[in-house]
Write a sequence for this structure.
């Protein structure tokens, strides 16, 4: 389900309609980070989305990178205005991708099923999931679907950070170890803002633990640890899906398939990302 839902959510960070909405708010769009931090952190609210909180909840970004954008993004537009623009951005982007299918019966059925799952998610101790779950569910099927997908991806993400911490992987180590298993080349992670020195220091700590070899690739122990992180992440994300029975889950997979194809086939999403979807 994560593989199906993540591209649906991530369109927000790449669609031209989203950059247009961000520019209308006053954000620079020469790079995607100003709008990314605004879009993703806005549910936390201005009081909850200071640099320390965003560094903690986004985890893999260097504190310097977060500090370059937060809290400055809220001097451009308040979180409430960002959230309203976020809905407009998703609406426009998905209507472009789906056309009439945005409000088709199959989309409405998928939204209803996924909303049941999102409402079943326990968001205690999961700040980004809780913040998104507290927002009103939009009426339009494609927007309700995106809202539920966002709650569930942040629910999984919050749990993933806990699994990384339990594994003793700090923010930069989490990226170094992920690159080491071939999730993406190290340069793909450059946007997270870690310096070459910080990256190397993280790699050295992992080498001392026997998790990364001299050539930067993961050892057997390193691969096993990352597999354990993913297992724990999946287990922590599983509970909400029991809101549906097996037949309903299969039906949801069937309904999400064409939407996933639309997202992947749009060309909006990069071929190599920091998400590692499809990687072992």
């Amino acid at each position: 389900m994560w593989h199906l839902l993540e591209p649906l959510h991530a369109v927000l960070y790449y669609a031209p309609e989203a950059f247009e909405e961000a520019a209308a708010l006053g954000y620079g769009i020469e790079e995607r980070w100003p709008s990314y931090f605004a879009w993703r952190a806005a549910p936390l609210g201005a009081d909850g989305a200071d640099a320390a909180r965003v560094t903690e909840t986004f985890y893999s970004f260097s504190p310097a990178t977060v500090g370059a954008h937060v809290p400055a993004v809220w001097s451009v537009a308040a979180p409430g205005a960002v959230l309203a623009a976020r809905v407009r951005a998703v609406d426009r982007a998905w209507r472009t991708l789906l056309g009439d299918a945005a409000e088709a019966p199959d989309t409405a059925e998928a939204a209803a099923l996924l909303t049941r799952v999102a409402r079943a998610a326990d968001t205690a101790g999961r700040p980004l999931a809780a913040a998104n779950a507290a927002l009103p569910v939009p009426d339009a099927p494609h927007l309700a679907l995106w809202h539920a997908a966002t709650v569930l991806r942040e629910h999984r993400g919050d749990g993933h950070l806990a699994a990384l911490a339990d594994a003793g992987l700090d923010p930069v180590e989490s990226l170094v170890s992920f690159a080491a298993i071939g999730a993406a080349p190290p340069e793909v992670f450059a946007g997270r803002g870690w310096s070459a020195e910080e990256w190397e220091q993280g790699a050295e700590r992992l080498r001392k633990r026997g998790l990364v070899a001299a050539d930067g690739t993961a050892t057997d122990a390193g691969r096993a640890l990352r597999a354990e992180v993913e297992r724990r992440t999946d287990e922590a994300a599983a509970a909400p899906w029991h809101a549906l029975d097996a037949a309903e889950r299969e039906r949801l997979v069937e309904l999400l398939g064409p939407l996933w194809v639309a997202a992947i086939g749009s060309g909006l999403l990069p071929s190599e990302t920091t998400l590692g979807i499809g990687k072992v």
